[in-house]
Amino acid sequence: MPSKPPAPAANRLLAALPRKDRERFMVACERVDLQYAGVLAEAGEISHHAYFPTGALISLIAPIDGHAALQVGLVGDEGMLGMPLFLGVGASPLRAVVQGSGKALRIGAAAFRREIGSSPALVRLLERYLYVMAAQFAQTAVCTRFHVVQARLARWLLMMHDRAYSDALHITQEFLAYMLGVRRVGVTRAASALKQRGLIAYHRGDIMIMDRAGLEAAACGCYAADKLLYACVLADHP
Fold first, then answer.
1. What's the rounded Cα separation, in Å, for the pair 173 and 17?
2. Domain named HTH crp-type: which ranges (predicted)?
3. What is the model's pTM?
4. Which position has the higher pLDDT, 232 or 225?
């Protein structure tokens, strides 16, 4: 039996807006289906849309010297993709790739800027979300430097599980390498160790969460820190 409830029908950031602001914002959006492995943004390129996932999962990847990459963040229905537009800089420093297929609300850059200009409530909410994302990036940097690969993998799987609303996750070797910043042999060892402990089932890119509580115990403290920060800054938004 799935250990997660059915996915909510809307993006939680937008759901936190006052009704009039939310309704006006929704009129400016279009509903889109995001397909697995689709690229929504390339590092250094101008962003033309902002995305508010309602069921999709987006991986934020930092390129390194053009030869490697590291996943630094995840965006699900708790957040949005398009912070450079909010900050007025246009280009993103990160690559955004769809990690889990699903629906999202998409809004064009010009319309997004108009909404920002007309909704102080939206601005306050996005400022709080920006703070949470900056903290997530910093937490990932510390995690990658100081924590063992197996604990880091458990952390990312839990973060995906929270946003995917499913025990079944599809993660290729390439994405696992992005998550952990290690070579394939390190990916295999970490996934195999969690599998041997009965925490996950793993076969050719398909991961099933078997023991959520055990996976939380195996994760580093960064996962709990991420959740606490979200609860303190966003979950109790005014």
1. 38
2. 147-213
3. 0.92
4. 225
